[in-house]
Amino acid sequence: MKLASVILDIPTQALDAPYTYAVPADGGDGDQPVEVGCAVLVPFGGRRAVGFVVALEERAEGNWPEGLDPAKLKGIVRAVSRPYFDEEGAACAQWLSERYLAPLSSCVRLFTPPGGVPRMVRSREGFWRLEEPAVGEVDDRWVMPGPAFAEFTPRKNAVKQASIVEALRAGELRVAELAAEFGAVSGPLKTLEKQGVVRVERRRRMRGMQQDESQGEQPASFTPSAKPPLTAGQAAALAAIDAARERAAGEVVLVDGVTGSGKTEVYLQAIEATLAAGRTACVLVPEISLTPQTVGRFRGRFGDTVAVMHSRMSQGERFDQWDFIRSGQARVVVGARSALFTPLANLGLIVIDEEHEGSYKQDSAPRYHARDVAVWMARRAGAAVVLGSATPSIESLHACAKDPTWHQVALPERANGKPLPEVRVIDMAKEFSSGSRSMFSGALSRALAEELSAGRKAVLLLNQRGFAKFLLCRECGFVPECPSCSTSLTFHERGNFLICHHCGYRISAPAVCPECGSPYLKKFGAGTQRVEADLRVLLDETPSVGPQVPIVRMDADTTSGKGAHQRLLEEFAAADAAVLLGTQMIAKGLDFEDVTLVGVINADTMLKLPDYRAAERTFALVEQVAGRAGRAELPGRVLVQTYEADAAPIRAAAAYDRALFLRDELPKRKLLRYPPYVRMANVLVWGASEEAVRHSAEALREGVAAQVRDFGGQEWDVLPASPCVLAKLRGTYRWHFVVKCPLNGNLSSVLLPFFRARKPERDVNVAVDVDPDDL
Ligand code: ADP
Ligand code: ZN
Ligand code: ZN
């Protein structure tokens, strides 16, 4: 008898194990055979549920798996989808579940097409029924001449028929196009079809691709791009990648190259070699850098074999790209981290650009890191991984130093031979003590005036992390906070309101203190809007610059709409002299020829955050943004304003001196037991009752500590449970505790049995974050 292991598609926090079902000998009552990766309909607890087949196994009578009672064995009703993944995908889901202590159902879900999974829904009458995916294939109806086309003679008054036939003389047309031209055409088309004058045919349409100009973001360039001869450094990097791929052992090549050193060109040629070897490539790019330009560089080289996946595409567009990949026509996938799970067969290369980016870590279950998943996948597939960054993560640098399967290649110079811009640190504390109250130092103001009046461009970065604007009562110290989250509300100048950036709670800004009635409410911090307003005043007061110089502001507010990010960048690119002002998002992937000045308004605000990566992030941010200046003919300069001019990450970044930064940072990591010297798991507990959450967190911590005593080792730590930094979020209370183990410790396998055995509680949620990105 054939048995299937099925993961039910039901949201759960339990580390669910698959259920076993019998595969009906006749294949069930559907057309699709039951295969690994299929969604199936199964009986479950008196009703039916949808699940995914993760394994199939032939078992002889009497040779049942342990614990299986054949009398109670139920059968699969039928398969309700084609396979979404194969055995390899099922193995990956299993690994993800164990490695990240995540429900298997959440891991399997990664492999399903965007929005396209059948599910059981309850109708208004209380019946359960299977609902087909809302996002499926889209057809277009096309009209073309039929057998009787030539004989057509229009009847009098049948004007539309005549027009349609006339239009078809030039070739086939979409019904939608005809309708746009002549209004309702379905009646006349039916008549014409009956007479054999035309034929109407449904054809598959791919949403979000060049075939369909009406939708989606269009790639900026589809023109074939020429392949430049590589520099010596690039050639060495390419050779290392090719060799790693040919050894087919899942090796990693870290391309440690400054901004503009030609890393992307190396990826392109490594992909070309991969395709030539008959294999495929998956390229991960931070979501924010997935612009039409980026996609255009890949399409320019590999044409329409490139599939694209990112969250700003509609579900329909993503579904079509997914289907395009499954069809085997796509040979290169460019996408955000989830692109790893698309059904790309015969994988030979995985590229992760800007590998230091925090966005490669998913912040909901399964809390995976794309880099670690890529390495696992590459080992299984006999592929290679390429990591690229100007500021590699400390973990990757460490792995290159310790692990013989990790190789580091450096591209210390820009491809065009231009020097990296000089970086000057400006001590804002000194500015302040000399009487200046402006957020723009004298040096930055002068530099702006010089560059802009000469018709050149500037980029200003406002470090948003830990730096939003809030109200404070000067008499009683009251700060308006969100009633559901333990954070102060952010003040918005335009519209005069306060908003919680976690849950969206919004009130109009009070004129007097709600606590003591004092009118002295001071606005603290500086949001991008405030900086924009002050900058406008500064530019307008500078005679050689004046009001005609545009300021393009790019932050969470101005980039929320589809394509908004792109539009702002184009606006900036099209202007003569202009300032691009924005948050972290401007530091990524931005490549403008004529930016000659980069200013960082506040380099240090992130340093004070309770996060072990604060210094690493600060170093990377300053280094990354500096690389945006002077990329082409004109030399660039970088001014970094800070209240902590002596802080090592800032001094080191200004000197492009990674060794200096690491000499300061690594001993601290070692002493305080943080990665890369240990591995960590953060156990999160949340719920509506503060008491229940605290109690549960403490009890869990005791349980985990006992488990670690028995199965871990001497060098393991289980820290006390405590409230999270954000102790209250969207009305729920949050506690956590941290487990640390030596680098070679089996973090997941020690914790897994404990969390598998744990009974979920009703009012309290628990999640484990293995290798948390911040803490
Ligand atoms: P990175 O990805 O490291 O920031 P890019 O690959 O975007 O660098 O390259 C920066 C610029 O240099 C691009 O305009 C690119 O076309 C150009 N470039 C890259 N490699 C070469 C080369 N070997 N010869 C000439 N130009 C190159
Ligand atoms: Zn007050
Ligand atoms: Zn809130």
Features:
binds zinc ion; 775 residues; binds adenosine-5'-diphosphate
What's this model, at a glance?
It comes from Gordonibacter faecis. With 775 residues, this protein is α/β, with parallel strands linked by helices. α10 (370-381) links the parallel β15 and β16.
Describe this structure in words.
With 775 residues, this protein is α/β, with parallel strands linked by helices. It contains 20 helices and 33 strands. Strands 13-14-12-15-16-11-17 form a 7-stranded parallel sheet, with helices on both faces. It has a 6-stranded parallel sheet with strand order 18-28-27-19-26-25, sandwiched between helices. It has a 5-stranded antiparallel sheet with strand order 2-1-4-3-5. Strand 25 (551-554), helix 15 (564-574) and strand 26 form a beta-alpha-beta unit. The longest helix is centred in the C-terminal third of the chain and has 22 residues, at 690-711. It is globular. The model is unreliable at 210-221 (pLDDT under 50).
